[in-house]
Here is the input.
Amino acid sequence: MFQIYNTLTRKKEIFKSLKEGEVSIYACGPTVYNMPHIGNYRTFLMTDNLVRTLEYLGYKVKLVMNITDIDDKTIRDSKAVGMSLKDFTDRYTAEFFKGLDMLNIKRASTYPRATENVDGMIELAQKLIDKGLAYEKDGSIYYRISGFPNYGKLSKIDFDNIIIGASVDVDEYDKDNPRDFALLKASTPEEIERGIYYESIWGKIRPGWHIECSVMAMNSFGPTLDIHTGGVDLIFPHHENEIAQSEGATGKPFVYTWVHGEHLIVEGEKMSKSKGNVFTLPEIVRKYGGEVVRFMFLSVHYRKKLDYSDAFAENAKNNYLRLKETLDNLEFALASAEDAAYPEDGEVLKALPEIENHFRGALEDDFNTPKAVTVFRDLSRTINKYLESGKNRQVLEKLHSLYRQFSDVLGLFAEAGKEEIPENVMKLVEEREAARKNKEWAISDALREKIKSLGYIVQDTKEGQNVKKVEY
RNA sequence: GUCAGAAUGGCAGAGUGGCUAUGCCUCCGGCUGCAACCCGGAGAUACGUGAGUUCGAUUCUCACUUCUGACUCCA
Here is the structure.
């Protein structure tokens, strides 16, 4: 039974999908205006873990993630570098996808773009106007918050207690109520000159930010969906506004379960440009490798802050490599497995179902990946122990299949076993083999050093030399 | 001010109403020609403070302190 924490109720709830066996998820994707940083990816990875967990538990998952390719920031920054909006956002969209691959994040079913859904936004705005929930002012369309009594149900913000001035731009005299937000914005002369506008009955407009998600989510799934994900900072106002737009227009519940990922901080502080502690994904991946970064994120629960530091990354790397080592050694052992039975076979096989139950239980509990990782480590130890002396083919295959199942759910070791050892290295290994046969230890050790300098490590086992690439 | 979350050993970080993982680090033993990997063992006064519930709390409740975040573009 899958349980998941719902921001709407601030409780862990037993998950029940609208359609038996199927889950619809809408995830707030990137605004493509710069290199995404590791914090952005933590949130995307959270959604990936949720998807993988649901699939592991037998659901068919449809994930839709939007790409915001038109908003204040994309317009501003594309101009600053003298690019068209499209060229500019295409560039960062490509970067975004590269990052997904670095972390082995599964692709969503679709990635709708805001610019491709403006018609739908105009329609939705019109519908809200017809219902008295939106109004036009100076060519822009605003949502009338006072018309939607449920406003605030997600964020639980008491708007009577908001310090006006601290939170609301008092200069926004063009709205009826300072908290009303823009659905569509009148294009400025400059935007029009750059071709950034769409025709409407209210004149030339371009989308605000919040409306795109309501439109794309409902286009993909209809008025109601199972799960909506995003970072905690989106709870207010973005997701609150999505609810107001969607439920205001349809009168139906928009989302049953809201899932929000906590932020990543750096050495105890929020990442911010002014502090100079913003890390992009490629920077970190270059240093530690994509899967180590993934593992690092997995080892902290998504509703807890992750305090990034070099020490933490190193820690994750060591843990990761240890688990990877088990897989390597297991596969190496498999190559020389035997059909004979070993005394420890039965004991190992008996332990597996329990381990598997623990693993499933961890993920069923609000997709608790750190707990799942611990179970993964338990399995690793069990395997290492068996490898000490046992080498029955059937047992090894069973261990391998379970280990692989776990690693797949966690999205780890995607490339394992695919690395080819270069010829020149293999040649040295063969030379070393000969030297070892003749007990020429000096030569053997020199060759080991040489191989190491080429980035490979050799381990001597009863079954011969095991060669592997040194990782980071 | 309102709404959240967090406080665990030298470090990093899970987790739990009664026994606290794991990794790094140090040491010992096994394995090895020597290593590496792996296994076993040992080390360290660890659960923010004060109350309460309880036979028993690090774990639940309340308060306090400190920190972080949201309330303004933000994953």
Q: What stands out?
A: Confidence is low (pLDDT under 50) at residues 163-173 of chain A.
